[in-house]
Amino acid sequence: MAIDETELKTTELIMKDLSFGVVFDIDGVLMRDGIIIPNATQALKLLEDKETGEPKYPYIFMTNNGGFTEEEKAKKISIVLEQEIPGDKVMVAHTPVKPLAEKYKDSDVLLISKTHETSKKLADWYGFKNYKSFQQYIEERPFLCPSKYSKFWTTGVAGEYDIKKEKTSEPLPIKSIILLEEPNDWGECIQVVSDILQSKDGLLKKNHIDLSEEQIIDLHVCNPDFTYGGEFLLPRYTMGALLECIKLLFKTQTGRDLIYTLYGKPYPLTYQYGKQLISDQISKLGFQNASIPKHIYAIGDNPYSDIKGANNLEHEGWISILVKTGCFKGDGNHPEIPAKYVVDNVYDAIKLILKLEGQ
Ligand SMILES: [Mg+2]
Q1: Could you tell me which residues come within 8 angstroms of residue 154 by beta carbon, excluding any fewer than 6 positions away?
Q2: Do residues 74 and 86 touch, judged by C-beta distance below 8 A?
Q3: What is the pTM of this model?
Q4: Is 336 in the same domain as 351?
């Protein structure tokens, strides 16, 4: 009986000192093309209390996808993983822009995504009060993209457009552009973003732009991925490739280097936000005294995003673990961006973490 009590006290001591968290990449680690990877469920179960099924160790999910809220993404992955994942354990590419709603509360923000509805949904979700969706902005200024909207080429009448602008109240100056997800029309996006970034205030009218000699308007870009795997044999371009086009044309036009902030793996803002979410999870589990994790284990399949991002912040306690169930399939470690540890799959990754942490 006395031994049991000692064991209990030892366990309590270990639990009080618990100060680590796990960050899962999703695609290539837990699922592939929406199908669960073998052992993923068992891996997550290792992080639960065996008897109650309640979470025992803190973990979150981090993806470079976007265009949906964290709640929506949580529901999607809950279906595949066959377990309830709460939205506060999920980070998408644009999750770290949430604090920008407060930063830009007194000025307009231009939100760029595939549809007006997506921008509106995310603006409401993150709390942006003053914003224009990209689609609204163009509707009010079709003269910015004449090759697409001007009827001049068909009717011969200049100044007539295929979209009618709605009368709106005088807009606030634009302080910031946020690329939430890759828009459908790159040409339109590159043109209008370049126009706004050359202005002092984003107040573009047909006969007016206040040009600036320096970049005053902030540009935030969520998801730095250059390509993604589609149904075609060759990868498809996405946000990172679009950003390269904007950078090149802005430089050609102004002679200046574009200034921007990137969110998503492997960039530090995303990892720092993830560390905060892990801290929140530690507090929720009742470990107030150890809410800043000493170690955060990032499990991923992509050396260039998951592993690179964690390695860059090794000094802040991040530890990279590369799995072989996704894009990395080589023997040994990645030659250019070696992970701290390489394991076969996510189940082995969790077993390794628990062993390293003495659990
Ligand atoms: Mg992945």
Answers
A1: none
A2: yes
A3: 0.88
A4: yes
CA–CA separation, 180 vs 262, rounded Å? 11
Give the tens place of pLDDT for each residue, 324-355. Answer: 999 888 889 999 999 999 999 999 999 999 99
Tokens of 27: 């695609």
Residue given tokens 């005053």 in the structure block: 216
Pair 78, 152 in one domain: no
Per the structure, the complete domain to which residue 258 belongs is given by: 95-263
pLDDT digits over 246-298, tens only? 999 999 999 999 999 999 999 999 999 999 999 999 888 887 665 789 999 99
Cα–Cα distance measured from residue 312 to residue 208, given in angstroms and rounded to the nearest whole number? 44
The Å distance, Cα 268 to ligand 1 centre, comes to: 17
Both 105 and 85 in one domain: the answer is no
Do 23 and 36 lie in one domain? The reply is yes
Q: Residue 250: left if φ>0, alpha if ψ -120 to 50, beta else—which one?
A: alpha
**Domain with 166 in it: what CATH number?**
3.40.50.1000
Q: How far is the CA of 184 from the centre of ligand 1 (A)?
A: 23
* CA 224 – ligand 1 centroid, Å: 14
Distance CA 71, CA 338 (A): 33
Distance in Å, CA 294 to ligand 1 centroid: 24
User: Helices then strands (H, E): number in the chain?
Assistant: 13, 15
Do 118 and 223 fall into the same domain?
A: yes
